[in-house]
Amino acid sequence: MTSTQQVAAETFGRTETAMTLETLETPCLVLDTERMERNIARLRTRLDGLGVSLRPHLKTSKSAEVARRVMTTPEGPATVSTLKEAEQFASAGVRDMIYAVGITPSKLARVLELRARGVDLVVILDNVDQARAVAEASITSGMRIPAMIEIDCDGHRSGVAPANQALLLEIGQTLAAGAELRGVLTHAGDSYKGGGPQAQERFAEAERAAVVEAAQFLHASGLPCPVVSVGSTPTAHHALDLSGVTEVRAGVFVFFDLFMAGVGICQIDDIAMSVMATVIGHQREKGWIITDGGWMSLSRDRGTSKQAVDQGYGLVCDIEGKLYSDIIVADANQEHGILAARPGSGAQLPDLAVGDRVRILPNHACATGAQHDAYHVVRGTSHTVEARWSRFGGW
């Protein structure tokens, strides 16, 4: 047994024969680390060229093993979307995190607990009520909680418009009086609309301009603003100028998915995550192959349905991850997936027998990953499962 196989055997706690794709229980989540590493290197190289640091969002991976491979150091920096993530990653040694969802007063006790453990956890907010709650909790605890003001760069969701200087000033002053104003951040939600490279470049510039305008106003008002943070996977891959920005947050780039491919941010063969399923039957007169990979393993996300190419519940590959042309998961029940040719494509179903295995590329890596408790790690077309990396869920 090789050293890699020994590690895998210890990870699984099983016999050597359990360490191949053919012997895993299905449905299960498969991660191709060859693709993952390529995706990480691509964005790091790009951001290095623009002179900004990467603060990866860990909400997609929810895995300490993945986090270690995407963060700059074992301690961070990182972005999280739940306090459960912050607590789990803190237990794994991460010390520098932004909790990038608007804070509620009821969650501040958990924030303070993490900060008491030596975790530099930063919260975000976009209104005076939140700022007051953070300032009051800071004064009561004797521990200044750092907070960032969320900026609305495109009307997509939350945040303060940079032109609303009165509100920016009131929030900033409220924080400075009792807590800590760490800076400003924004997220270009409109970038998920696609539109091609030129549109993405415009989204990226609008993102940059909005957050830099807010930061400059706060500085001019005598308030600190050391961190200027932007972030979305599409804009991270299309920004031409990040002057005034200190860091970029992005997450799904580690795995990519069919939605990102539909937006034009990646190619199909960049997608590192897949769900392996087993053929359990046929409905030949209907042109169906039935698998044990239903929406409980794939998720119900149908985000590509509004794109130019509807990928159903996912694209179908062979066991090695090689794509079958125009074969999709056309429908799904809780534990059944229905494979069929894409309507109008003229594609022929692959000759798959009961017991054969397929891998499904997901529409939305975050949603699909959330259905599973572990990644089964492979490299490229190898059938050897090198490790089982745990992932977690919850809030």
TrEMBL record:
SUPFAM superfamilies: PLP-binding barrel. GO terms for biological process: D-serine catabolic process. Keywords: Lyase. Gene3D superfamilies: Alanine racemase, D-serine dehydratase-like domain. Residues 272-379 form the D-serine dehydratase-like domain. GO terms for molecular function: D-serine ammonia-lyase activity. Pfam families: Ala_racemase_N, D-ser_dehydrat. Belongs to the DSD1 family. This is DSD1 family PLP-dependent enzyme. It comes from Allorhizobium terrae.
